[in-house]
Amino acid sequence: MHQRAVTVLGAGLTGASVALELAGRGVPVTLVERDAQAFGRASLRNEGKIHLGLIYANDASLATAKLQLQGALQFSALLRRWLGPAADRLRASTPFHYLVAKDSLLQPDRLESHYAEVEGLYTEMRERTPELDYLGGTPKRLYARVEPSSLEPFVRSEHFAAAFETAELAIDTAELAAMIRSAIAGHPLIDFRPQHLVQSVTPAGEHYRVDCDTPAGPTAIESHQVVNCLWEERLRIDRSAGIEARAGWVHRLKYRVIARLPEALRRGPSVTIVLGPYGDVVVRDDGTAYLSWYPLGMRGWSHDIAPPSQWDAPCRGDVPAAQAESVTRDLLSAIDAWYPGAAQSDVLIVDAGAIVGYGSSDVDDPKSGLHDRTRVGVNSLAGYHSVDPGKLTTAPLFGKLAADRVIEAL
Ligand SMILES: Cc1cc2nc3c(=O)[nH]c(=O)nc-3n(C[C@H](O)[C@H](O)[C@H](O)COP(=O)(O)OP(=O)(O)OC[C@H]3O[C@@H](n4cnc5c(N)ncnc54)[C@H](O)[C@@H]3O)c2cc1C
Questions:
Q1: Do 359 and 400 sit in the same domain of this protein?
Q2: CB neighbour list of residue 267: distance below 8 Å, 6 or more residues apart
Q3: DSSP annotation of 246
Q4: Do 362 and 226 share a structural domain?
Q5: 156 and 58 together in one domain
Q6: Cα angle 109, 115, 117; round to 5
């Protein structure tokens, strides 16, 4: 075994961030992934919103908003560090408008004061560290209240109590996937091991033994340090290593549709309905959109240590035709009621992702733990580091932190 052997488990954005940071600092790393290629799960099959913290209005402490802002304002800088100037070529969506539902958990004035507080945090952070940027830009304002009718004809404004335009954007996760895959493949210090399903990690004296199933049979990797970036499989593998999770986790299975919008909607606003179990339309400049409607797209809820095995197929993009049709019909008709014309879109992809969070009730409950995303980060015990990034937005931030911990311990 190499004197400084480090194994990173999982090649989503978190694991890729750890591996690219370590390799960039001269540390050889083995990157283990169950799929044939990297970046094919939650990091690919999500909305791509780089959160400024606006949505987390129900966490009055502002801790969640602050964390999202920290992640968002370092997102591009960290990607640039690992991917070079290519990171600045990531396409962004049209800016999000937040539309306040008439039965929102919080009323428009309360939401507006949250947005003002988030903007205050943002201004402070940028004054303290002027080089911070948000996806290559430095917006002066994060939000402005507008009349819902200003969104006509794209949106049926009578459904909404208020509207805010915001500076928030989403990236195209498929583009990021392509960039990350080629950075991993091109780095001489990253030994990428696809089709390795991690079954357990066992402490063995001064090192760890990572047991994997591969198409050629079982194999074991010996390593001085292990970084667990397995997302919905993270707690199961932590348990095998003797680390028990804090109680209260929940795994949710959420479907999404990627579609080509009808011509008339291609310059429409990206929209998030707040605050509660609603949905999003994310309009990208290539004419495609991400479409989600929470009450119909959220089709799995589990407090087990890892999600049921039936979630695996949709989470790698394998959705039977009948299921894809039912998801499409449900989501598009719900969205068409307030974003008219959406149902005329040509569907390109129907798939799902697992969301890991903490809570015993759903987002329609103002007291749900799901409104607080601060129980995340890097948990290190000797040479074992377990990383819960919380969100795509904060995955590079926590990936970098985990790599720093590994280097400190070398
Ligand atoms: C529908 C949806 C919408 C979302 N929207 C947003 C959003 O707009 N903004 C935002 O910031 N966040 C969003 N998120 C959250 C975000 O997607 C995740 O926080 C983030 O992608 C997690 O990154 P990761 O690298 O930790 O996980 P993943 O990308 O899932 O990577 C984990 C990797 O580990 C591999 N793996 C798992 N188990 C094993 C095993 N046993 N052996 C070997 N390999 C294994 C997987 O195949 C995968 O490649 C959303 C999530 C979902 C599902």
A1: no
A2: 94, 283
A3: P
A4: no
A5: yes
A6: 105
Query: Tens digits of per-residue pLDDT, 201-218?
Result: 999 988 999 999 999 999
Ligand 1 binding pocket includes 252 (Cβ within 6 Å): no
Q: What ligand 1 atom has the least distance to the C-alpha of 68?
A: 11
Q: Domain containing 298: what range?
A: 49-171+248-371
| Residue 214 and residue 195 in contact, taking contact as beta carbons nearer than 8 Å | yes
Our CA dihedral for 230, 233, 235, 239, rounded to 10 degrees, sits at -100
Domain shared by 183 and 268, yes or no: no
Number of domains forming the structure of the chain = 2
Same domain? For 357 and 317 the reply is yes
Residues 152 and 238 both lie in one domain? no
CB-based burial label for 336 (10 Å; 0-12, 13-18, 19+)? middle
Query: Model's pTM, two decimal places?
Result: 0.98
Whether 300 and 156 share a structural domain: yes
pLDDT at position 169 is: 98
Nearest atom, ligand 1, residue 388 CA: 26
pLDDT at 4: 72
Q: Based on the fold, state whether residues 252 and 294 are members of the same structural domain.
A: yes
Question: Does residue 201 have its Cβ closer than 6 Å to ligand 1?
Answer: no
Looking from the CA of residue 390, the nearest atom of ligand 1 is: 19
Give residue 49 CA to ligand 1 midpoint distance, Å: 14
pLDDT at 3 over 60: no
Q: Does residue 35's CB lie within 6 angstroms of at least one atom of ligand 1?
A: yes
Asked, for residue 1, whether it belongs to a domain, the answer is: no
Looking at the chain, the whole-number percentage of residues with pLDDT higher than 70 is: 99
**Contact by Cβ (8 Å): 394, 68:** yes
CATH number at residue 194: 3.50.50.60
For 206-252, what is each residue's pLDDT tens digit?
Answer: 899 999 999 999 999 999 999 999 999 999 999 999 999 888 999 99
pLDDT score at 374? 84
Residue 238 CB coordination number (10 Å): 21
Q: Give the per-residue pLDDT at 376.
A: 94
Q: Does the Cβ of 258 fall within 6 Å of ligand 1?
A: no
